[in-house]
Amino acid sequence: MNALSRLAALLVCLSLPALADPWETLAPGLELAEFDAHLKSTVSDSRVTVVRVDVARRPVRLLSARVEGHAQEPTAERWAALHKLIAVTNAGMFHPGGEPVGLARTEGRELNASRRKDYRTFLVLHPREKGLPPVQLLDAGCDDVESLLPRYGTVLQSLRMMDCTGRNTWKAQPREWSTAALGIDGQGRLLMIHARSPYRTHDFIEVVRRLPLGLKRMMYLEGGPEASLHIAAPGRTVRRVGSYETGFNENDDNTRYWALPNVLGVVAPTEP
């Protein structure tokens, strides 16, 4: 190999790490990546969108239309505009009146004081004591949730998708839908995960586990046309809307955000 060939090979090698990095920085503490799923869906593009949040630098809030005084429940896009949020996703499933299905508390205010035994994962934010992580996904199977839940101002309970050992906890079933989910990685960063393409939930978990996320735990948020992820970064808007749901909306036609009574929102940087 001559000197010119060696130089060309060296330049290629040096460029590989940059080419391999899928993350786009949208704001301090907020990154976006898009991945092709290894398992292809029969509908849409089989893509997974992930927003990675360093909660210590970019605060996350649980917002409720009832608490915030919204007579009409906003869409994810409208939530972002109303509350200066740079990213918005679903805050779990809810009852017809908008009340969260699982235990929910936002910055000290109760949204639903009843805990579900079959919901095994808890998102906790806003620690009330020094020394606690700014965000955790607690697993009722291995964490002392009774001790930890009162020590956080914000709590959201939902269905467990992946437990503290990394095990897929969802039984195989035939129904499939678009999915919004929440994960946490080995560095304690929150992962907002969205796929428009429908998957059986057990299969979707396997798709996400295969991605280079350093994923440690994961919880379910919502499925079907309500599954939403909206990003309103400076000079960059990303809209991810769900559509397909077995037995309800068996098509890929939905292109609009649905109204959401409760959301998780990433606080936008303060403008200079």
UniProtKB/TrEMBL annotation:
Region forming the signal peptide: 1-20
Domain Phosphodiester glycosidase residues, every copy: 84-267
Keyword match RNA-binding: no
Keyword terms: Glycosidase, Hydrolase, Signal
The keyword Cell membrane appears for this protein: no
InterPro entries in the record: NAGPA (IPR018711)
Entry's Gene Ontology molecular function annotations: hydrolase activity, acting on glycosyl bonds
Record's protein name: Phosphodiester glycosidase family protein
Species assigned in the record: Pyxidicoccus parkwayensis
